[in-house]
Amino acid sequence: MTSPSKVALVIIHWNNRSLLEKFLPSVVANSQEDARIYVADNASTDDSVAWLQEHYPQVQLICLPQNYGYAGGYNEALKNLEEEYFILLNNDVEVPPNWIKPVLQTLESNSQIGAAQPKILQYNQRNMFEYAGAGGGFIDQLGYPFCRGRLFESLEEDFGQYNDSREVFWASGACMFVRAKAFKEAGGFDANFFAHMEEIDLCWRMQLMGYTIHYNGNSEVYHLGGSTLQKSNPKKTYLNFRNSLQMILKNADSSQLWWFIPVRSTLDLMSSIFFLMNAKTSDSAAVHRAHAHFFFQWGKWWKLRKEVKRLRSHQQLHGIYPGSVVFEHFAGKKKRFSQLKHLKQIGS
Q: How far apart, in whole angstroms, are the C-alpha atoms of residue 318 and residue 338?
C-alpha cells in the first residue's frame, strides 16, 4: 500500500452534482488507501459543495472563489499541496481496484519521468478506447495530437494491443499522474488555455525541461467524456483551435515557426470550410474567432514563449510523429494507430 500522504488525488469540479454522485463512490472506495482525495470546486452554483460535505466528509474540499477552468483551477488547487505526486482526475471517471499502483510505480522508477497516464477506456463501452488519452498521446510534425487507440474521431477496440508501458509525448488530463516537483518547475498549466490541450502544452514544456512522459497500460480507468462541453460544442471548437495555435507558438522549435503557423492556419481554414459544408456554421465561426483572438494577442503568446525553459532540443523530444496524421487519416483512410507509415521513428 502506498502512503496516502505521498499522493494527492485531486478532482476539479464545477456544477453537475450528479457526476459526483455517480463517479465519486468508486474513487473513494478504490483510492483512499493509496492517496489523499481532494475535490477542488470551481465556484459551483448548484449544491455540489453541500452534498460533498454531507456525504463525503472524508474528502478534502478546496473551495475556489471563481471558476478558473481546468487549467487555472488545478493551478490554484495544487499550489498549497505538499504531496510528492498528484493524480489529476476528471469528475466523470470511474476507477477499479488497484488502479493507482502500476502508474505510480512508473513515476517512482525514474526521477526524470514527469507525468504518466493509465489506459483510458470508454465508460459506456468498456471494450473501446476513449477519445481523451486512449493508449497514450503523440503529436505529428504539424502539431496535431492523436493517441494509440484514437486517430481523430476513429476509436479502436481494446484487444490488449496497448497493454504495455512506454514513453509517449503527452499524458491525458482526464487521468494524469504528475510529479509535483516537475509540475511546479514547469509553472503548472497555462491558465490562458482555460480548458483543452493544456495537458499537451504542459507535457511539451516538461519534455523541453528534460523530463519524460509515460503510459502504463497495466492500469485502466473508464471515462464518460464530454460531460462539461460536448464534442460538437462551438466553445470547445474555439478553445481547441485557439489553444493549438498558442501551444505551437510557445513550444515549437524557432527554426520551424516560419512555416508551422502559416501551414496550420491554412489547414484550419480548410476545417472551417468543412464545418460549413456540414451545416455547422457555429463551429466554422468559432475557428475564425479563435484565429482572430490568437493573432490579435500575438505579443502575449510570444512573451509566454520566452518563459519556456529549453534544456533539450526539439530533436531530443520523444513522441513526435514525422509524418502527417491529417493526411494519412483523411486522404489515406488510416483508421488505426498501427496503420500509420512511420511508427518505427517513434519507437513503435
A: 18
260-263, long-range: CB < 8 A, 24+ apart: 260/142, 260/143, 263/142
pLDDT in tens, 6-52: 999 999 999 999 999 999 999 999 999 999 999 999 999 999 999 99
Among candidate residues 217, 156, 157, 208, the one with its CA nearest the CA of residue 186? 208
- Distance, CA of 226 to CA of 193 (rounded, Å): 18
What are 238-254's pLDDT values in tens digits?
A: 999 999 999 999 999 99
C-alpha cell at 87: 493524480
Dihedral, CA of residue 104, residue 31, residue 6 and residue 132, to nearest 10: 50
Give the Cα separation of 143 and 41 in Å (integer): 32
| Structural element, H or E, at residue 33 | none
For residue 91, the SS3 value is coil
pTM of the model: 0.96
Report long-range pairs for 272-276 (Cβ below 8 Å, ≥24 apart).
275/237
Amino acid at the residue 148:
R
Angle 240-39-20 from CA coordinates, rounded to 5°: 80
Residues 224 and 233: their CA atoms lie apart, in Å, by 16
